[in-house]
Design goal:
Order of helices and strands: HHHH
Helix content: 40-55%
Oligomer: single chain
Largest sheet: none
Number of helices: 4
Number of strands: 0
Strand content: under 5%
Amino acid sequence: MLYDTKELPAATKLSDVKTVNPEAIVSYIMVDLIAAAKKVKLPVVRKNTTIPVDLAEKAEEAGINFSATLTEALKVKLGV
């Protein structure tokens, strides 16, 4: 949830929660989702790909990270 949702739902009013759960002890909690998200590791998979030699050489000379570049390109292509 921390890495697949751009917009989180609004918090429920405490009075609404108490109404639905009259016997429960209800209180607010504070969560730093940005800090929590930094601790969550995205699941990743390894994918091998084939590209032209000249393109690979130029990319390596330029210090391009192949995994990061492929990830960025796929996000653009998929609109995510």
